Amino acid sequence: MTMEPGLLLTALLAVGFVAQWLAWRVRLPAIVFLLLAGIVFGPVLQLVHPDRLLGPLLFPVVSLAVALILFEGSLSLRFAELRGIGGAVRGLVSYGAIAALLMLAAAAHLLAGLSWDIALLFGALTCVTGPTVIAPMLRTLRPNARIASTLRWEGIVIDPLGALFAVLIYEAIVSREQGHTIGVFLGTIGSGVVAGAVAALVLGQLLRRQMIPEYLQNFGTLAAVLLTFSLSNALAHESGLLAVTIMGVALGNMRNLHVDDILDFKEHLTTLLVSSLFILLAARLPWPLPSGTLMAGIGILLVSQVLIRPLSVLIATAGSSLAWRERALIAWVAPRGIVAAAVSALFALRLDALGMRGADALVPLVFILIIGTVVFQGATARPLARWLGVAEPEPRGVLVFGADEVPRAVAKALHDGGIRVVLADDDWEGIRRARMDGLTTFFGNPASSHADRHLDLTGIGRLLAMSTHRERNSLACLHYREEFGRDRVYRLRNLGPEETTDRAALADSLLAPPLFEEAMTHGRFAGLLAQGWRVKSTRLTATFDWPHFIEQYGSASILLFGIEEKGALRVVSTKRQLEPRPGWTVIALVPGARSEE
Q: Is 41 helix (H, G, I), strand (E, B) or coil?
């Protein structure tokens, strides 16, 4: 069966979307469904033939897509964050990663018969985890805060570092295959570093001085990345990947340069590229696989799971403050992700063209390890965490969306009441004030792809959407309804019941119940605070119960939350009214002296 190329490319986009949606629904990394879709439509059903579809454009298209993926990953590496990640993470991303690289290379050499050159490249590609696979697994796994923080930071930091390892080893292999001297190899590395640094410096100055209008900044950055990749390759063959990696690291660490909007755009673009690219790459897999590749891949997966990862974690976390149970779970969780799949496919194309023996086995081995680690660890990590006693109990923390005076006052009261609170918004002034109040914050849109990678939701089980943007509140509720559950997502009205249409009110109520009493809106809450009202926390006792609280602070007081003796949070909404009991801590909005006057 043959399909018109335009229809086939459109169908691939649709299949990629379905794979991403399915991953969101079942809370597994999307890469698993993308690779499986490619295998089904390629080797199994023989519907997609990438070499026939793209012809001579296949290698350039894959190269440019991988260049963008590497740039986006390296742009998120901030050196300032490395100082606060702890000794365990520093060990995992340095000598622990090197130990894993060497052991994985030895396994590939012994079990799959790869030459040492290809085996070392395999080790560099597969010694890394990544935020795109770690974040969905942590949400299902729900370990304690120390484990979650260690795994999350390992994925964020080692993703671009692993790409850098792989690029350097690849450059060494190509240089050796083409008979280049060590001087030519060093020249290639130098060209990539210089080209990336110069491109970052020029683009950074243009952005910092506002010489590119805001609406063209994403377009300009995209053009600059692809131009840097192509020019670097023209100056020194195969130096382009190193150039864009250095460019991303340099831009991400420039002072007084905000790249969050660019990073957000690149993440959306990467989602599109990954969704199409991985289906095409998986469709290129030879079927049946080269003799012995499947069994070798399974063998490497087992050795990696029960020997290599535990040994590398043991080496990396020696002397750290992590308990042995925590180290045991970290040793079990190491899913591989996007960088390994994308870069391995690109390198395999190039090495196969050079006639390297064993290059055809590189991609199948990497894909087997990716699918195996994600599926196997996703199924076993949660029961193991419970057995080890390091699983987080039912999450009681709160994610507050908004950073003006209303959500800050509510978040501060919850924080003082012993509830874990993360306040998120892209309003820098509000975030700055929240940090001065001692609150944990996230600068950015909590419903963005950037938040999926970087927002730490350990212990968080509820959303309070309280920003001044009605539509963004609705999007946040929709985003986290699947994450936390329908009955654990709330919103503070921006419009009163009399100001909205029946249809809009019904749509909003389906997303999340309104917070507090029927007439409470964001504007009214802010107005009461301006009049001198304050958010008051009080512990009730047998001699000072809720009626006594009302008597002291006035019948106009508005109950907001109740915290039970065991720490469980109760939220007042239009669908749930509370009857506070002795032993509870009540949080209420009460009149102040100025309002009473």
A: helix
Instruction: In whole angstroms, give the CA distance from residue 543 to residue 555.
Output: 19
Look at residue 345 and tell me whether its pLDDT is greater than 90. no
Chain-centroid distance of CA 100 in Å reads 23
Widest distance between CA atoms in the chain: 89
Of the pLDDT bands very low, low, confident and very high (cuts 50, 70, 90), residue 304 is very high
Within 253-337, residue ranges assigned H as helices are 260-283, 293-303, 309-316, 324-332
Compute and round to an integer the Cα radius of gyration of the chain. Answer: 27
Tokens of 268: 């959306």
**d(C-alpha 102, C-alpha 313), whole Å:** 14
Contact predicate 392/144, CB 8 Å: yes
Give buried/exposed letters for 154-165 (b at 16+ CB in 10 A, else e). Answer: bbbbbbbbbbbb
Cα–Cα–Cα angle for 283, 343, 43, nearest 5°? Answer: 10
Tokens for 186, please give them. Answer: 């060093």
Tell me the pLDDT tens digit for each residue of 369-393. Answer: 888 888 888 888 888 888 888 877 6
Q: What is the pLDDT of residue 595?
A: 41
Residue 36 identity (one-letter amino acid): L
> H or E segment at 556?
none
Q: Is the pLDDT of residue 99 over 60?
A: yes
Per-residue pLDDT, 303: 94
> What element of type H or E holds 320?
none
Angle formed at CA 123 by CA 369 and CA 65, multiple of 5 degrees = 75
With a CB cutoff of 8 Å and minimum separation 6, the contacts of 96 are 312, 313, 315, 316, 317
Question: By the 8 A CB rule, do 124 and 340 touch?
Answer: no
With tokens 């949080």, the residue in question is 587
Rounded Cα distance, 36 and 61, in Å = 21
Contact 251, 259 (CB under 8 A): yes
Using alpha carbons, list the distances in angstroms from residue 499 to 296, 492, 521.
66, 14, 11
Name the residue with higher pLDDT: 184 or 470: 470
Three-state SS at 143 = strand
Sign of CA dihedral 516, 518, 522, 523: negative
| Segment (H or E) for 587 | strand 585-590
Mean of per-residue pLDDT scores for the chain: 80
Structural contact between residues 594 and 530, judged by C-beta atoms closer than 8 angstroms = no
- The pLDDT assigned to 184 comes to 67
Distance CA 249, CA 75 (A): 5
Q: Which residues contact 541 (CB under 8 A, 6 or more apart)?
A: 582, 583
DSSP reduced 3-state for 382:
helix
What is the CA 270 to chain-centroid distance, rounded? 13
Count Cα atoms within 13 angstroms, Cβ side, for 276.
20
pLDDT for the residue 250:
84
Provide the β-strand partners of residue 442: 424
564, two tokens: 């039970």
Going from the C-alpha of 205 to that of each of 115, 198, 256, the distances in angstroms are 45, 11, 10
pLDDT given for residue 504 in this prediction: 52
Token readout for 525 is: 């809450």
pTM over the 0.85 mark:
no
Contact 328, 313 (CB under 8 A): no
Contact indicator for 129, 171 with CB cutoff of 8 Å: no
- pLDDT at residue 485, as a whole number: 77
> How, if at all, do strands 421-425 and 397-401 pair?
parallel
